[in-house]
Amino acid sequence: MVVCSVNLAVPQTVFYNQRPVETGIFKKAVSEPIFLGKDGVQNDNVMDTVRHGGAEKACYLYGYKKQYSFWKKQYPNLAWEYGMLGENITLQELDEAAINIGDVFQIGEAIIQVSQPRQPCYKLGIRFNDPLMVAKFQQSPYPGIYVRVLQEGLVQPNDIMQLITKCTDSLSVLEVFRAIYDPQTAVSKIHQIINLQHIPSKLKLYLQQKYITQS
Predict the structure, then answer these.
(1) In 3-state terms, the chain is what percent helix, strand and coil (to 5)?
(2) 20 to 30 A Cα–Cα from 123, which one of 26, 48, 105, 134?
(3) Is 19 helix (H, G, I), strand (E, B) or coil?
(4) What is the dihedral of CA 162, 168, 169, 175, to 10 degrees?
């Protein structure tokens, strides 16, 4: 998997429900390498540190070839550029169905571990100027991947993301993503996800509250 672009947030203030909101969803490609730290990407402006960034969501990666083509067909009038989905790293190809939670990769100088799929918030709708974008994203097959950083380091365009360790006793990123948003998801599947070794504690709590406590 080849790195097409590395992107950092350009903070903007937008109006949502008639109130100003600061957001880092607007990311732009940068010419210099970015540094993946254990608690986030250096110089990336994360405005909502409750829902974004931190050790379990240190960096967000998204695919270009299939994913961007998919969204361009739905939003042909947007000015498309790398970082459109709010990702720090745009990969030429990314297959969420083939990557498992817990898989470990080398990318540039860094070593990363897949932690979870993205759970989109309303700011994605702001980025696409369409409040329905969040629901569309939830139903798409392209959630992208959040990772934790096991070894800090620089990443730049043309670096290769290579698999180091396959977490075979796990589920794919897409399978977990589907389970999160499918109202027909069986409680047994939710228990399976919660018991995965590398699922973040916040996601476990979310799933417990949404599916198990209410069941």
Answers:
(1) 25, 30, 45
(2) 105
(3) strand
(4) 70
Q: What is the pLDDT of residues 143-163, one digit of tens each?
A: 999 999 999 999 999 999 999
Give the C-alpha distances (Å, rounded to integers) separating 77 from 16, 29, 74, 103, 202: 22, 20, 9, 36, 36
Residue matched to tokens 């969204």: 71
Give per-residue pLDDT as tens, 36-52.
Answer: 999 999 999 776 666 67
DSSP state of 144: -
Which is nearest to 201 in space by CA: 48, 44, 57, 59? 57
- Cβ atoms of 34 and 42 within 8 Å: the answer is yes
Q: What is the dihedral angle through the alpha carbons of 157, 136, 212, 207, rounded to the nearest 10 degrees?
A: 20
Torsion of CA 5, 11, 14, 19, to 10 degrees: 140
Written as six digits, the tokens of 1 are 């998997």
Residue recorded with tokens 């006793």: 169
> Residue 69, by phi and psi: left (phi above 0), alpha (psi -120 to 50) or beta?
alpha
